[in-house]
Amino acid sequence: MDYATLLQLLDTTLRLATPLLFACLAGLYSERAGIFDIGLEGKMLMAAMASASVAFLTGSVWVGLLAGMLASLLMAGLHGIASITFRGNQLISGVALNFVASGITVLIAQRLFGQGGRTPPLAGEARFSSITLPFAEELQGVPVLGPLYYEVISGHPLLVYVALATVPLTWWVLYRTRFGLRLRAVGENPAAVDTAGISVVGLRFAAVAITGILCGLAGAYMATALQAGFGREMTAGRGYIALAALIFAKWRPVAALWACLLFGFFQALALRPDVVEAVVQVKVPVPFLDALPYVLTVLVLAGFVGKAIPPRAGGEPYVKER
Amino acid sequence: MERLPRWADVALVPLVSLLLAAVIAALVILAIGQDPWEAITVMVQGSIMDSYGWGYTLYYATSFIFTGLAVTVAFHASLFNIGGEGQAQLGGLGVALCCLFLPWPHWTLALIGATCAAALFGAAWAAIPAYLQARRGSHIVITTIMFNYIAAALLIFLLVDVLRPAGQMDPATANFPEATRLPTLNELPVFNLFFTSNVPANVTLLIALGMAVVVWLLLWRTRLGYAIRAFGKSEAAARYAGISPFTIIMVAMLISGGLAGMMAINNVMGEAERLLQNSASGAGFIGIAVALMGRNHPVGVVLAALLFGFLFQGGAELGLWTKIPIEMRTVVQGLVILFTGALDVMVRMLLTRIFNLFRAGRMAKGAA
Amino acid sequence: MASVGADARYAIELKGISKAFGPVQANKDIHIAVPKGTIHGIIGENGAGKSTLMSILYGFYRADSGEIFINGKPTAIPDSQSAIRAGIGMVFQHFKLVQNFTVLENVVLGAEEGALLAGSLSKARRVLTDLSREYELDVDPDAVIEDLSVGHQQRVEILKALYRQADILILDEPTGVLTPAEADHLFRILKGLRDQGKTVILITHKLREIMETTDNVSVMRRGTMVGTVKTSESSPEELAELMVGRKVLLEVEKAPATPGAVVLKVDDLRVRDEHGVERLKGVSFEIRAGEILGIAGVAGNGQSELLEALGGIAAATGRITLNGAELPLSGAGADGRSRRKAGIAHVPEDRQALGLIMDFAAWENVAFGYHDAPEYQKNALFMDNDALRADTERKMATFDVRPPIPTLAAKNFSGGNQQKIVVAREIERNPDLLLIGQPTRGVDIGAIEFIHKQIVALRDQGKAILLVSVELDEIRSLSDRVAVMFDGRIMGLRDPETTDERELGLLMAGIAEGSKGEAA
To answer: Could you give the number of structural domains in chain C?
Structure first.
């Protein structure tokens, strides 16, 4: 494999890792607050449909982005009501909302556009265009690093950089702010938070709302940046891969970045079986590459690659007791 | 606040949940500019008003009984087996290998062989997550989700690269030999009095109903069932009683996976007669809804499976005869799971309040 | 009207507080006045309503009726936030600490100075240094909670309250998990706080603590306040009588033991917990037929592990023999089922978590641990549920379980009746050895007498009994020999007839007679 192919692969990796990263960080806020969310997939899908539809109708990708975040927030709110207010089973709520999203996105898109549940292709202002970072053109000639900067780092839609910036931001929020301290506490021992006079319900809803917003970004990126429009089931299990990445990263923000880049790399490889074959000298079936993130996550869960200890109060509705 | 009477808890709560889901579904249909009344008419017409509709409704219900029972058995051991989808696909692989590569003289023998193969393959696919949960504490919900995706990838690989006959375009196995064809309901005595035309519902329905009885006996009449239920209520107490957590987790999951796998004799052997990609087509997930709706009791599971069979067939009819897309049925499934599974506390609170109003009224009257 | 009779001399004054949970009246018209700068005890049996009352004061529950005055001012406490604002700090029986946070983070949680943490943490560090100097409350601010001992964790809870400038400190059963030495340290801290003008409320069911530390004491019984007295003018006997409403019959009538052959022989038994910490550090003893060996000690000194190892729940090393036959301590054969087959019955310390399945009906619970017993089987495949129900009816009659309804779920029986179901199940198996832990915890007086009689009757049938209890009185009145455990070891064996509370107390604190001189 030559350098150009490698750069191409890395470029695709970054593009494909972005929605995973948004969704993974989204799950991180929720799960760190003690609310399991296997509904990342559904929220992404809703956001993808809403953002693509609104972007097409208004012609503005920004309005579309807002709509995507709102749609995802709505889903997050439902999950919050079910699992926080009514102390329902968080896993079942997540499964249910994934079903609802899978169906209703098609229903709405069909109603709006009548094109078999797709939105019409987005173009121009209705889509995020790629940004060329400063000096990318000029530095292209610098050996090794120049092309790396130009090909891989520069030339992505804005949301890619937003996703990358969300990683240190999340780290800072989690470990350096009052909100982060309380968030981590409520996922470990909600009784401690409650007796300290802080509302467990309020904190958890805040966390779930952030999850909604970030999933909104993930979905909007899918429909308005990575691709040009919404299609049924377009997230194709990315919400679950993000969940896998979150476990792989042991619920830590910086590790989440590496996990998402790794899983993004696998996805990029699955698009280029020829490259894989050239490198390992055997024909590797694409499904094997597709399954790799899941297999790795199972290995992590099994404790063969470090021990993944989820937040202690995760999945448990909080019931006041003496 | 008084608690709900038992009959209300068992019957009324699921019914009200269902009603709420139906109301929201009607609102969704209104919102997309269609007529809910027309929708329900079409659904009823197409699924339970004639033997053709029943043939499909029962065919779907058969699959859902298996996956619903699968979730139920795991649930009683306090395990949330979300991997029915993958286990059912592996069950399909077992059926395919069994039908394609063994010479069967008669469908009855083929059915026994394929049932065993399906259960075996399904159980095997559940075994790894079960082992990881029992020995290493890996959260079974996550591992079974992962195994669904791994199963999907494995089957694509097998269907594309291994089992696909030369010259065939679509990723599927060859058609099963004629000797393995299962009789459909219209070919069975007694049933053919009602089912006059060819329907997909087949002899597997009887096996599904039989399994419901077996599961009931297992859970409430055997030592193993007692141990499973005790373990499901309290692992610490089970340990005190000398019930081995490892054994129970493994056995419950193997049974669960086996039941999910057995679904394949209905759809793969009984209907498609070859193994296709994504053969379980969501039935594994619907099993969760069926188990929730059926209150984890075999009788409830059978009733709920019928309901979902109706939704599935009715939803398909919607796609055919109205402007409502077939995806409507996915929405309804989601809503039913949401209301019966995650919002049951809300429904119960609501009903308790109503009941207390009645009680207060009665008491006031009594005092007056 | 609200402030009539309010008096600023009192830190807390409660008037007519009532609280019901469904049909259960947890607090009935409670009046209490706690003078400022005193240590005020609230004593009562389990379930007397002490914790409910304090939870109302801390805003965890809202009273159905009644008024709360803080420093003479009527105060509404709808939530914990209001309680904290009113200057109330609470140390719960089960600590409310985030296990993987540092001491500093736990102290700061909920009392942060601003949106960013850095300032709060450095301020807390300063304040903590001052507080620990002032009140003997030294803990490393950077230590992670899960690495701290229970006593230190409790100090963190007190520090949390003081950091929030609490003037009134409520402690709910603070010594249940402490060694006597740790408890003494705690009481020194509390006296120091009182001397600085703080008001301390100490909730406990242990008379000794009340007599040693408090200035005044209020006694609760079945949800009502039966009286408040000056501690110095009262006596343990008077308080005990107030608590239970009649003279307590602490002596159990029993004939002298006639020990037979050795039934259980335990040799160098050791148990490690899941973190690899040794909790049982080489215990050896034997029990003969027809005798009761009582294990005394502060909770958490290895008694639970001892029961679990003998009952086949926890893996152990060492050697145990039952009637001369060795029993495996780990791997195959080291489980509850095999132990029962060998002739060991086990009434666990925590009947609700271990001894019963609370959602199961009484008849299903009667088979718990014995569901493969031959008499409960119809044939090779199925259990005989009818036989099981009939057996349950019989047991319920013999043991006077009320209500005698086999189909009622275990959770719907009172604590005493739940315990009777467990005891009936285990004793009626006619075991060679009965392991019984905290037989009367949370059990009403009537049932206590009944259960004690059953234990003695079993002994008189020539069975061996291992009794574990944190109630010293129970141990002394039932046991034929007493072993005292401390830090995973047996500190000594005593004859309950000749020993006294002081000697046992020293052993429970880990002071053996040989080292008496140095310890003094």
So the answer is: 3
